[in-house]
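So, can you check?
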Amino acid sequence: MPVRVRTAHQHTAMFVVDADAAQRMIDYSGLRVCRFGRGHRRALVVLMLMRYEDTDLGQYWEYGTNVMVNPPGSQAAGLSALQAAGAFVHHLPVDQAFTLEAGRTIWGYPKVMADFTIRAGRTFGFDVHIDGQLAVGMDFKPGLPVPAAFTSRPQVHSTYSYADGVVRETPGEMRMTGVRYRPGGVDVRLGDHPYAAELAALGLPKRALVSSSAANVDMTFGDAKEIV
């Protein structure tokens, strides 16, 4: 430790959703969604696809459903609270057995095996199938490039996971290059897998707040710390 990712490609889409619906989805964890907006009725959910190319865990595809949550014990709310929020990993399908086992064992991430269909071209798209059922598909329109001076600085962040009755916090650091952003810019399709039903309960598919891509993500993951 730490585990190093030297080369990875990233596509993300951020959605504003009903905070109560997001809380119901992750209630099992004991964590609280970071609420903002009028009456603190909104929360942020991030859907993410990663292609890990050069890493300590090998090459693999990974999809994630992440909900922005308060640090354990915090009751903060409002836009300022998002600065201290971390990402709770609710879904995390992957396509390789080694990273699945490492993710579950080391960090408590909810990794499951999945099949990924990738569509590359002027637009980038993917589908995730689990046990033969479509969970989610997304198609991204190209974004506008962001100067590296705004994105290549190290970003320190925490992710949270829940497994076997234990919440874990994992610190990480990343640097991103070749970043593009676009308001909206993504189409979401939901299938028949139970994951899709959970996303539908959040109001998806809907317009994204913003979508983004990164030509490369360099990151490190530390040891997980048990919270409760």
